[in-house]
Amino acid sequence: MAHVVIIGGGFGGLYAAKRLAGKDVRVTVIDRRNHHVFQPLLYQVATAGLSPGDIASPIRWILRRQKNVEVLLETVERIDPARRAIVFRGGAETAYDYLIVAAGATHAYFGHDDWRPHAPGLKTLEDALDIRSRVLGAFEAAERDAVLAGRPAALTFVIVGGGPTGVELAGALAEISKQTLAQDFRHFDPRAARILLLEAGPSILSAFPEPLRAAARHDLERLGVEVRTNTPVTRIGPHAVDAGGATIDASSVLWAAGVAASPLGATLGVPLDRAGRVLVNPDLTIAGHANVFVIGDLASLNGPDGKPYPGVAQVAMQMGAHAANNIVRATEGQPLRAFRYKNFGNMATIGRKSAIGDLPLAQLKGLPGWLFWLFVHILNLIGFRNRVLVMVQWAWAYLTYQRAVRLITSVDSSAE
Amino acid sequence: MAHVVIIGGGFGGLYAAKRLAGKDVRVTVIDRRNHHVFQPLLYQVATAGLSPGDIASPIRWILRRQKNVEVLLETVERIDPARRAIVFRGGAETAYDYLIVAAGATHAYFGHDDWRPHAPGLKTLEDALDIRSRVLGAFEAAERDAVLAGRPAALTFVIVGGGPTGVELAGALAEISKQTLAQDFRHFDPRAARILLLEAGPSILSAFPEPLRAAARHDLERLGVEVRTNTPVTRIGPHAVDAGGATIDASSVLWAAGVAASPLGATLGVPLDRAGRVLVNPDLTIAGHANVFVIGDLASLNGPDGKPYPGVAQVAMQMGAHAANNIVRATEGQPLRAFRYKNFGNMATIGRKSAIGDLPLAQLKGLPGWLFWLFVHILNLIGFRNRVLVMVQWAWAYLTYQRAVRLITSVDSSAE
Predict the structure, then answer these.
(1) Nearest chain A residue (CA) to B405
(2) A113 to chain B nearest CA, in Å?
C-alpha cells in the first residue's frame, strides 16, 4: 500500500488527509504542533475574545476516526526528494511514496529581523497570547504609571499592515479601548487610547473592490481608528515606529504586514519565487518529482488570470483536496489533473455589526456583511463543541460589550 | 477617607474587597497577576478539560462596579508596617491606613529546590499549562518513539502527594489515558499507561474521615491508579523518582505535596510558624500592628479545637470578609472581633461520577458526591459567562468522554 506523507496540519494538510479517507493508501500527517488552528479567528484570541481551545483542536483528534491515517508530532528539518525521504530534527528519517508539503508561511520582516521582538506577528496560538498580554499589559502599565509616577498615561497602539489581519486587529483594539475597558480604570480614560493602522500601499484591504474598501475604512474610522495609507514603516524600536517621515511613540506595535514561505520549501531543490514559495506545476507537483506536491501558502502558482493564487485558507483547502485526488489517480495509473480554483469569496471583519464580503453574487458590508461573516465562521469551525462554545461567547460578548479572556499570562514569575 | 490596601486577588483578597463595597473607605487591590483564578478547578486546566479563561477572570473586571475600589497590577517586594508603607519591586511605594495581606502560598519542595524543574506544581495558570503540555507531550513522545525508534512505549505518570490536588490529578490522568486518548494512537496503547499516586503518610486525603478516604481510594484504584501510601519521595531526577526504597522510571512527575507561605509574610517582622505562615491574633491582626491583617494561606491561627485552620478557599473567604468587617469597625471606633470559622464541609473529586464530600450533615461519596461537587463548583464560579461555558464543556465531556483543550503550547518554536 502506498505511503502518503503530509507535512503540515493546517487547512491544506488537513483537507488532503480527509480526502484520502478510505482510499487504498497509508497516510502520515506530520506537524510540529499537536493542534490545528482555525487561523481566521486567531485575531480574536489575540484580542481576548476567545480562548485558544475554542479555535484549535488536536490534529490527532480531528482525524481519529480515519483508520488509514496516523499523526506524528515532529519537526521536519529537510526533504530529500531524490531518496524519497524526510529528515527530522535529530536525524531520524521516514520514507514516502507520495509527499504533500503543506508547511505554510510565517511572518516576514522584509529583512528587518531586529523588528521582530518589538512588533509580534500573528500566526500561532503563542503569538496570539503574546499579543494579548502586550495589549492588556499596556493598559495596566498606564494605570500603574498614573498611580505610582503621577504621569499622565498616553496609550498608542500601532498596527503595521492594512490587510484583513491588520484591519481585524485594529477594529478589535478600538472596541477594547472604547467599550470593553471603558469603565475599568480609575486614573486614566482607556477611550483616549489611539489606534493607528499603517499601510504602505495606497489602500487598505487591497484585495477587495473599491466600494468595500471604502466601507471598511469608514467603519474603522467611526470606531476611532486612524488609518494612514501610503505610510511605509522604516524603523521599529522598543516603543517607537518611524513611518511616513515621522516618529510615533507606541505603547505596543503589532505586525500584520508580511509573510514568508516556510524554509522547508528551499530544501526541495526546485525553483522558488521571490517570496520563497515553491513554483509548482499546474497539477501541484514540482519539477522533476511527479510524486511530490506542494500546496497552500508554500505553493506559487498563477491562476487563469495570470495572477498568483492568494495565500488564503480557501486556496489551501482546495489545493489539499486536489493533491489528494491526484495521488489517488496516480496510484490507479491515471494521469494527473490541473488545479482549478473556485473562489467562493473573500471576507474581512472590522468589528461589531461591521464586515465586508466580496462574494461571487453580491458585495456585502455593514450589518449584513457581519451576519454573513458570523454564519460562515461558525459553520467552518471544526467540531460541534467549538461551535457551541464560540456561539455562547459571541452572544455574551455581543450583549455585554465585554471580552472575557482578558488574561495576562506568562508574566515574569521570578518573584514567586 | 481611610485607605485600605489589599495585597492579593485570590479568594481572601477578593472577598475582603467585596465586603468593603459601599463602605466609607478607599480600597486598592494589588496583585502581580491581572486575574483571579478559581483554584479548585485549576487541575481541570492542567488535564485539558477546561481553558484558562473558563476559570479565571480579570480582578479589575470582577470589581469594576465597586466605585470605591481600584486595582493595581504590581509586584510587592516588602511591607514596612512601621511606616505604614508598601514597597514595590523597583522601589515605588504606596501608603496605607489599613492593610490586608492575602498573598497566599506557593509550592514547597521541602528544601529540594532542584526537584522543581522535574516535578511542576499546580498553583497558577502557567503551572497548569505547563503540566498540560508535559502530560500530552509524553503521549506524543511515546508514539514518536514507537514509530521512529521502534522502541516499545512505556508511559508512567507519578503524582507526589495524596491530598485533594494529587487525587484530582491522578483521577483525571487515569481518565485521559483509559478513555480520552484510548483510540487516538496507532503504535501503542494509551490505556497501558501507569499512574502512580505516592503519599508519604499512612493515608491519602488525611483531612477526610476514614470511610470517605476508603471510598476515594477504591474509586481511584478502579480507574487504574496505583495508590502507594507510606511512600516518601527521597529524590526526583529528570525521568526518575526514588520512593519507598525503589527507583521508578517516570515519563512525567507532578508535584502536589507541599506548599510554603508567600515570602512577603517574613517582611512584616512578626513571628512565623514552621511553614513560614504569619502568626495572627484571633482578630486576624498581627502583633504590634492593629491596622495590619493577615488572612488565608499566609495566616497561622488555631481554631477552637487547637488545630490550625487549613489552607483552603473557604477559610480564606471567611477571613477576608472578617478582616474587612473589622476594618469597618475600627474606622467606627468599635472594638475588633475574633474570627470564627464556619465549616461548610470539604470535598474532593476523583473523576466521572465519583467525588467525596464531608459535610456538616452528611458524608457523600460516589455519584451523589459527584453531583453535589458539580453543583457547588458551578455555583461558586465567578460570572454568568464562566458558569455557562463550564457547564457546556462538562456536558460535552460527559457525553463524549473527551477532553477538548488538548493543546500543547509553548513548544520550542526556534524552527519557525
Answers:
(1) A53
(2) 13
Residue A85 pLDDT greater than 80, yes or no: yes
Tell me if ipTM is over 0.85. yes
Q: Mind telling me how many Å the CA of B86 is from chain A's nearest CA?
A: 12
Identify the pLDDT of residue A410. Answer: 62
> B98 and B291 in contact (C-beta within 8 Å)?
yes
DSSP string, A33-70: SSEEE-GGGHHHHHTTSS-HHHHEEEHHHHTTT-TTEE
pLDDT at A210 over 60: yes
* Phi and psi at residue A248, to the nearest 5°: -110, 125
Cell of B314: 473557604
In chain B, which residue's Cα lies nearest the Cα of A139?
Answer: B73
pTM: 0.90
pLDDT, position B69: 96
Beta strands in B42-110 (DSSP E): 56-58, 69-73, 76-80, 85-88, 93-95, 98-101, 105-107
Task: Record the cell numbers describing residue B277, joined without a space.
Answer: 505562615
Q: Are A282 and A290 in contact (CB under 8 A)?
A: no
CB contact under 8 A, A407 and B32: no
Average pLDDT, integer, range A104-112: 89
Phi, psi of A197 (to 5 degrees): -110, 110
Q: How far apart are CA B298 and CA A169, in angstroms?
A: 42
Q: Cα(A372)–Cα(A347) distance, rounded to whole angstroms? A: 9
Q: Is B143 on the interface with A (CB under 8 A)?
A: yes
* Residue B264, all three cell numbers: 512577603
All residue ranges of chain B with pLDDT < 70 are 384, 404, 410-416
Catalytic residue among B126, B140, B143, B168: B168
A253 near A119, Cβ under 8 Å? yes
Between positions 115 and 134 of B, the ones with CB within 8 A of A are: 124-126, 129
- Which A residues in the span 272-311 are in contact with B, Cβ-Cβ below 8 Å? none
The two beta strands, A354-358 and A363-364, are antiparallel
Spot the catalytic one: A74, A168, A332, A416: A168
What pLDDT score was predicted for residue B416?
Answer: 30
List of domains in chain B: 2-108+259-331 (3.50.50.60), 119-256 (3.50.50.60)
Chain B residues with CB-CB distance to A106 below 8 A: 416
β-bridge mates for residue A243, sequence order: A233, A246
Catalytic residue status for A221: no
CB A149 within 8 A of CB B92: yes
Q: Are strands A259-261 and A105-107 parallel, antiparallel or unpaired?
A: antiparallel
The per-residue pLDDT for B258 is: 82
Q: Alpha-carbon distance A159 to A162, whole Å? A: 8
Residue numbers in A near B404 (CB within 8 A):
53, 57, 383, 385-386
